[in-house]
Specification:
Blueprint: H1 12-15, H2 20-31, H3 36-39, E1 44-49, H4 61-74, E2 78-83, H5 100-113, E3 118-123, H6 128-139, E4 143-147, E5 154-156, E6 159-161, H7 165-176, H8 181-190, H9 203-214, H10 229-248, H11 258-270, H12 276-287, H13 294-303, H14 319-324, H15 327-334, H16 351-355, E7 380-384, E8 387-393, E9 404-412, H17 415-423, E10 434-437, H18 458-461, E11 469-472, E12 484-485, E13 506-510, E14 515-518, H19 522-531, H20 542-550
Parallel strand pairs: 1-2, 1-3, 3-4, 9-10, 10-11, 11-12
Antiparallel strand pairs: 5-6, 7-8, 9-13, 13-14
Helix pairs in contact: 4-10, 5-6, 6-12, 7-8, 9-11, 9-12, 11-13
Bound molecules: FE2/S2 (inorganic) cluster and magnesium ion.
Length: 576
C-alpha cells in the first residue's frame, strides 16, 4: 500500500515552502489561533457541511461536524469545516434538482481551491448525496461520505407515519372528504419528529444506501437514525478514518469501479429504490468514468428482487425498523450472491470483509432472497415510440392491474392545466384513462420537478379509485407510489414525442415487455412534429440560463455536458 510522506501532501504546497506566499498562508492560519503544531506534517481534511437553517434534514450537521473534527484530531489531521449549499428538498423552489449540478460544481471547486488533502462529506437529503459525491469524484482526492441518517418514525394518534408516503395518502383522503382538518393538522405535527432525512425508503435513504453499497461510507453508516448516539460515534470514526485514507492515498477511482457500480445498483434495487436514484446513479457513475445507463439498471433490476420491506414499496416498516433489523450490512449479506465482495471500500477492506459479521435480526423487515417483497428490482425501464430514450416506472409500488394497460390520454401542457383537471369532480374520465403531464422535464420544469406522482383526480377519488396510469417527463418523490411513468426522454420541451400526443390518443404500456407506445403511425407523428413549435426559453440570464444550455436528458443523468469526465482535458491544479 502506498504511504504518502508529509512532504507529498497537497496541503504542504500551501503551508510548507519557505517563501512569501506560504508565509502568508501560515500567518493567516495563525490569525485563527492555529500554530505550527496544527498543520505541520498533517493532512488537512475538509469537512464539507450542508447544514443550514432551512434544511431540516441536515439540522444536526453542525454538531456532527464537531464530531468529525474530533475524529480528525485524534488521528493526527487538521480539520477545516467548509460550508456548501444545503440542498433543502422541502424548501427549494422550483426544485432542488435544478441545483444538484451547481452544488456538485461548488464541492469540486471548493476542494480544489483550498489546501485540503481529503474530505468528509456531510449530507443525505435527496440531492445532497449525489451533488457531494459527484463533485468529490471529479476532484479526485480521498473522501468519505457521512450520511445524515433518517429521522425518527412519524407518529399520529398511535399510527406510524412515513415521510412523504403518508402525506400523499392522507391528502388523497382529505380530498376525498374522509378525513377533516383536525386529523390533517395532527399528521402535520407528527410526521417529522426529529432532525434527519425522510425515514421511508425514499430518495434520501436510497441514495445513502447506494453510497454505502458503493463502498463510500463506513459499514452500516447509512442506516443509523440521525438522533441515535451511534450516529455521533460514526461521525467521529469518519474523521479518524479519512486521515488514514489520505496517507494510504485511497482515491475515489480505486473505489468507484465498474464492479462497485454494479454493487451500488444492485443494492438500490434490493432497497426498492426511489426512481430518482436512476438519474443520480447514472450521473455519479459517469463522473467516475464508468459508462452506465438505463439498460444496466433494467438488467440488474430483473436479477435483484426487493428485499427491504420498507414504505413506500412495503406497507409497514420504516428506516428505524431497518436499522434495528441489522441495516444495510444485513441486507447486503442476504444478497451477497448478487454482489462482488472483492471490491475495495473506504475502510481499505473489501466489501466482503465489511459485511462478514452482519446479522439479520428481523427477516420480515429484511427479507431473505427466498422470500422477497417483490420478485424483481423495483424499477423497470420502458421504451417505445413515446419514449425512444427511455422512461421508468416503479412496478413494486403500484396496483398490479397496470402491468399491461392501454387507455386514452388526457393531456395537460403544464401544472396549471393539470390542476384544473384533477380538481374537477365532474371531469369525464374512467380509471382506464392515462393522465399525461408534459413540459416538466429537465428543461421544461425547469429542473425536472417532482410532479410525476400526479395527484389522483377528484373525479376518480369520489368513485373510490386510488390508482390510475399517469405519465410525464417529470420525476417523482422517492416516497411516492402509484402507476406513474416518469422521466420520459427526450422530454416534451425539446420536442420529444410526448410533445406531439393529444387528448384521446391511446397510450399502451406493457411492463413485462418493457414497452411504452402511443398508438399512432410514424407518418402521423411526423405530421404533428412538422406542426409543432418549440416553447419559449425559460431563462434569459443567470444560472438557469447556463442550466438549460448544458443540462443533459434524464437517461444520461441530467449532468452538465461540460462536467463529464471525458469533456476536455483534466482541470489543472491551482498554481501557488
Ligand atoms: Fe430531506 Fe426528504 S426532505 S430527505
Ligand atoms: Mg424526496
Amino acid at each position: 500500500m502506498t504511504h504518502k510522506r508529509p512532504e507529498d501532501l497537497r496541503s504542504a504546497r500551501w503551508f510548507a515552502p519557505d517563501d512569501l506566499r506560504s508565509m502568508g498562508h501560515r500567518s493567516r492560519a495563525m490569525q485563527m489561533g492555529l500554530s505550527e503544531e496544527d498543520w505541520e506534517g498533517k493532512p488537512v481534511i475538509a469537512v464539507i457541511n450542508t447544514w443550514s437553517d432551512l434544511s431540516p434534514c441536515h439540522h444536526h450537521l453542525r454538531d456532527r461536524a464537531e464530531q468529525v473534527k474530533r475524529g480528525i484530531l485524534q488521528a493526527g489531521g487538521m480539520p477545516a469545516e467548509l460550508p456548501v449549499h444545503s440542498f433543502s428538498e422541502q424548501f427549494l423552489k422550483p426544485t432542488s434538482m435544478l441545483y444538484r449540478n451547481m452544488g456538485a460544481m461548488e464541492v469540486e471547486e471548493t476542494l480544489r481551491s483550498h489546501p485540503v488533502d481529503g474530505a468528509v462529506l456531510l449530507g443525505g437529503c435527496d440531492k445532497s448525496t449525489p451533488a457531494l459525491i459527484m463533485g468529490a469524484i471529479s476532484m479526485g482526492i480521498p473522501f468519505i461520505f457521512m450520511p445524515a441518517g433518517a429521522m425518527l418514525r412519524g407518529n399520529y394518534a398511535g399510527q406510524k407515519l412515513g415521510s412523504g408516503t403518508d402525506v400523499w395518502k392522507y391528502w388523497d383522503e382529505r380530498r376525498a372528504g374522509t378525513i377533516g382538518k383536525e386529523e390533517w393538522m395532527g399528521v402535520q405535527g407528527g410526521i417529522a419528529r426529529s432532525y434527519g432525512t425522510c425515514m421511508t425508503m425514499g430518495t434520501a435513504s436510497t441514495m445513502m444506501s447506494i453510497a454505502e453499497g458503493w463502498g463510500l461510507t463506513l459499514p452500516g453508516a447509512s442506516s443509523i437514525p440521525a438522533p441515535d448516539a451511534g450516529h455521533k460515534r460514526m461521525a467521529a470514526a469518519c474523521g479518524r478514518r479519512i486521515v488514514d485514507m489520505v496517507w494510504e492515498d485511497l482515491t475515489p477511482d480505486r473505489i468507484i469501479t465498474a464492479a462497485s457500480t454494479r454493487n451500488a445498483t444492485a443494492v438500490a434495487m434490493a432497497t426498492g429504490c426511489s426512481t430518482n436514484a436512476i438519474i443520480h446513479l447514472i450521473a455519479m457513475a459517469r463522473r467516475a468514468g464508468v459508462e452506465w445507463g438505463l439498460d444496466d439498471l433494467d438488467r440488474i433490476g430483473r436479477e435483484v428482487p426487493v428485499l427491504a420491506n420498507l414504505r413506500p414499496s412495503g406497507k409497514e416498516y420504516l428506516m428505524e425498523d431497518f436499522f434495528y433489523a441489522g441495516g444495510l450490512p444485513a441486507l447486503m449479506k442476504e444478497m451477497s450472491g448478487k454482489l462482488d465482495l472483492s471490491v475495495t471500500t473506504v475502510t481499505g477492506r473489501t466489501l466482503g470483509e465489511c459485511i462478514e459479521g452482519a446479522v439479520n435480526y428481523n427477516d420480515d423487515v429484511i427479507r431473505p432472497m427466498s422470500n422477497p417483497l417483490y420478485h424483481e428490482g423495483s424499477l423497470a425501464v420502458l421504451r417505445g415510440n413515446l419514449a425512444p430514450d427511455g422512461a421508468v416506472i416503479k412496478p413494486a409500488a403500484m396496483d398490479s392491474r397496470f402491468q399491461v394497460h392501454s387507455g386514452p390520454a388526457i393531456v395537460a401542457d403544464n401544472y396549471a392545466d393539470l390542476k384544473k383537471i384533477i380538481n374537477d369532480e365532474n371531469y369525464p374520465m374512467t380509471p382506464d384513462h392515462v393522465l399525461v403531464l408534459r413540459n416538466a422535464g429537465p428543461q421544461g420544469g425547469p429542473g425536472m420537478p417532482e410532479w410525476g406522482m400526479i395527484p389522483m383526480p377528484k373525479a376518480l377519488l369520489k368513485q373510490g379509485h386510488r390508482d390510475m396510469m399517469r405519465l410525464s417527463d417529470a420525476r417523482m418523490s422517492g416516497t411516492s407510489y402509484g402507476a406513474c411513468i416518469l422521466h420520459v426522454a427526450p422530454e416534451a420541451f425539446i420536442g420529444g414525442p410526448l410533445a406531439l400526443i393529444k387528448t384521446g390518443d391511446i397510450i399502451e404500456m406493457n411492463i413485462p415487455n418493457r414497452t411504452l407506445n402511443v398508438k399512432l403511425s410514424a407518418e402521423e407523428l411526423e405530421e404533428r412534429r412538422a406542426a409543432w413549435t418549440p416553447p419559449e426559453a425559460r431563462y434569459e440570464r443567470g444560472y438557469g440560463y447556463m442550466f438549460t444550455k448544458h443540462v443533459e436528458q434524464a437517461d444520461k443523468g441530467c449532468d452538465f455536458d461540460f462536467l463529464k469526465t471525458e469533456f476536455g482535458g483534466p482541470v489543472p491544479e491551482p498554481e501557488i
